[in-house]
Amino acid sequence: MSTTNNSYNSDPLVPEVVIQRLPLYVRVLTQFTNAGEDVISSEQLGSMLQMTPAQIRKDLSYFGRFGKQGRGYDIAMLEGQLRAILGLDRTWNAAVIGMGRLGRAVVSYPGFAPEGFNILAAFDSNDDIVGKTISDLKVESISRLTKSVKELEIKIGIVTVPIDQAQGVIDALVEAGIRSILNYAPLSPQVPDGVIVRGIDPVLSLQSMTYYIR
Amino acid sequence: MSTTNNSYNSDPLVPEVVIQRLPLYVRVLTQFTNAGEDVISSEQLGSMLQMTPAQIRKDLSYFGRFGKQGRGYDIAMLEGQLRAILGLDRTWNAAVIGMGRLGRAVVSYPGFAPEGFNILAAFDSNDDIVGKTISDLKVESISRLTKSVKELEIKIGIVTVPIDQAQGVIDALVEAGIRSILNYAPLSPQVPDGVIVRGIDPVLSLQSMTYYIR
Predict the structure, then answer these.
(1) 0.80 exceeded by pTM
(2) Which of A45, A103, B32, B109 has the most beta carbons within 10 angstroms of its beta carbon?
(3) How many domains does chain A have?
């Protein structure tokens, strides 16, 4: 059983849901840094995220000792270490596969690049779209996937094809050496061990809004 | 400061991040039900979500007493009560505003209806698109927003317009009486008290994948 539309089976030492919480920690720490704060307690961090201080300390304890008893965490140091742990201290090259409506929206989304995610390639299987330039990207045939992934050092695949093509595209990404896939298609794909897939899930967002209007 | 691209300022008794976790609880409980289980402990639930049993009990304690000491939770009852709390025991009518690439992808997404979210209307400001039928929806002029929202009892607005139009569209939705907005545009919109906005945030998903490939 899996709690989300994700797959990963390596490093059992750190549970996947803990890893999924870390970007939220980074975001809160960045907000505190921008507000001019230097030190934060697990109580304050817990208060921001509505988590118990014990839960915060347990999550962080997977990665070593960050704070001093009774002194709180050095915000800059903790943020820097969490960014390093998450691999956010560098940039990552990504490719979008499926240049229909959704894919075009994704490549024009301005939120990726400031966070270090650079979309360097776009692929489609439709000959009418291949060769066109969309958001400064020349759309390539999906048959060139493996070659371009290697040449451009692409590490992340973003899947925006229709549901009936998604598993095939994900297989091709895995074949090309990609181990990290952001999947917009509403299915839970099969992937081998060592490949992680995250699904974009607007339903979860809707389900936590109806509380307020029920 | 806010931890996410969300806004809400009512009912301070239950923190918003707790509400945001409840759909995950529902999802896990549904999985256990489907696996034929009847009873679940806070330890088991915590194990699935990698949360401490104390955190689970604290989250649930906002809504009353669900379990008996040492007996665990009745899964069907807890799932039913959480669904009722979240307003998931009924259907909700939604409208999509912005019928470009992203909007068209959203209205054709098959994941909403099975969870009770019915997209009944689509709007655009472009005269070339208004009047067309897309995924069985006749695209309406945004000038008809207030009228259609009332007639169709629409409670949720899904914003898929470009970033430079998003705040204006969100203002129009609020004006039309919508209090629950799913926002795909990468900005944190201004909304009055009592209106909740959730942003779809693929960056958070990417940031928790790079851990595995860094």
Answers:
(1) no
(2) A103
(3) 2
